[in-house]
Amino acid sequence: MEAVEDKVELIASGQAVAIIPFGPRAGFRPDLTTIPLHGVEPGHVVLATRAGDRSRLVAAFRKSARDCLTGPGPMAAP
């Protein structure tokens, strides 16, 4: 199973649960809900790209990720 939609279908059918990152849920299915997990250590997010990649799209995504992600620890510079 590779598509997110397939995973969401399993959750909606009651066959699975998922732990997803905290953030806006705009557009999330109205028949599903999210419940915050308290007492759970935060996860770490890493952005990996090819060494020396000069793509404008990759640079824009890196900037967007840096702007959106917060928490302890610096994000590695390009």
List the helices and strands and how they pair.
Elements: H1 4-12, H2 56-68
Count of separate DSSP helical elements: 2
State the end-to-end CA separation: 32 Å
H/E topology pattern: HH
Overall number of structural domains: 2
* Cα-atom radius of gyration: 16 Å
How much beta, percentage-wise? under 5%
Q: Major β-sheet, in short? A: none
- In total, how many beta strands? 0
User: Which structural category fits the helices and strands?
Assistant: mainly alpha
Low-confidence stretches: none
Helix content: 25-40%
The outline comes out as elongated
Mean pLDDT: 78
Summarize the structure.
The protein has 78 residues and is mainly α. The chain has two domains: 1-43, no CATH class; 44-78, no CATH class.
Quick tags:
0% strand; 78 residues
Q: What does this protein look like?
A:
The protein has 78 residues and is mainly α. The chain folds into 2 domains: 1-43, no CATH class; 44-78, no CATH class. It is 28% helix and 0% strand. It is built from 2 helices and no strands. It has helices at 4-12, 56-68. The two termini are 32 Å apart.
